[in-house]
Each structure stands twice: as structure tokens, then as C-alpha cells.
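Methods — Computational structure assignment.
A single polypeptide chain was analysed. Its primary sequence is given first, followed by the predicted tertiary structure written as C-alpha cells.
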Amino acid sequence: MKYKKILLKLSGESLMGEQEYGLDPKMLTQYAAEIKAIHNIGCQVGIVIGGGNIFRGLQGAAKGMDRVQGDYMGMMATLINSMALQAELEKQGVSTQLLSGISVDPIAKKMCRARAKKYLQNGNVVIIAGGTGNPFFTTDTGAALRAVEIEADILLKGTRVDGVYTADPEKDKNATKFVTLTFDEAYEKGLSVMDLTAFTLCKENNLPIYVFDMNTVGNLLKVVNGKDIGTIVR
């Protein structure tokens, strides 16, 4: 096992599966099984999930909604996704703890670095909802923050493509994949790995980011074991 403690960032959209919105039970089952596989080999797992399958604060703001109110609604969407994944993990026999950047007793305890690290050390998968707990920050930034807080070895960004490309591989057949990148190279080339705030937080704390295809069964275990199937930025 190459990475003993990871923070896995999943997009809310990935939980939609083939649906136009909401949660696809098949994707929840598949993702939980992937997470269970790395938990079973002793990897400490922290998870942050977006809420874009339910609500996006920026989209709400674009339609005239107050940005702060929209962002808090987005945080609640991440909580719904996190609760759904927690339920599926528990169903598959994985011990979990749900923390949140915003106070939502009795559903989740407030995120606390010491609490999260203790849960991880005790063998729990720790899901952290609610972003940073503040408006104007994305769940990418929330993931970067939580990864730094729990002292993760790496931030794994699970997507539907197998790494970072020169262009969108779903639109440009000539796009080529990067195996490794430095933070400066990714910035200079204008590659959208994560939003700039999250990216800078990772760079300043020497936290590598690994982008990989989460939708292929077995890939998460391969990444944790050190197989080169995606793109690493460091």
C-alpha cells in the first residue's frame, strides 16, 4: 500500500449515474464497494462529496438568488449526498463517522481536526460534509482543507476521465494525457485540475493531487497501491 491515509474527493454529479439529477443507487453501491476495498487493507479514508447533483450555489446566484443563501443550500446538498454514502457504507459493513463544516445536530458532529483524526485511527471511514462551512468556497477547497487538516498523504480526485489532459478528451480526440505535472506547470498551462483556491492550498502545503477515473471498478484500490493509472500533480 503506497498511500496509508487519503482524502477522496467525489463530485455530486458522479452520484447521478445515468440520471439527470439526484442519486443513483447503483453508483452509491459501486462507490461504497470501492471505498470498502481500500478500507479493508488498512487505508485511512476521508471523503468529501460535492452537491452539484442536487443544488449549486453559483447557479442559484446566476438566477438571481442571494449567493450566500445559495451556497448554504449547496452545503446542505453535500450533507444529503454524504448521508446517502454513509448509509450504503454501513450497509456493506464499513464503520463510518459523519462530520460537517456546519452544525447539523443530531445528524452529524461538527468537523474538528482532532475528532476526525481519532475516528480515522480507530478504523472509521470519515465523511466530511458541509464544505468549509463558509459561503464563497467550493467543495474542492473544502476537500483540500480537510486533506491538510487530517494530514492525508494525498488528495485523490475521482472523476469520469482517467487523468488530466491538454484539452477535454470527451470533446477533443487529439487531447493528450499528462502522467505527472508540477503545480506551476498546471497553472501555467491553464489546466482545470481544481479551482484556484483549492489548488493553491495544496501547493502551499505540499499536498499532491491525484486525478483518476473513479468509475472503473478496481481503480481506487490500484491508486492506493501505487499503480500509475491517472495524473499526479505535485
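Note: Residues 66 and 124 are 37 Å apart (CA to CA).
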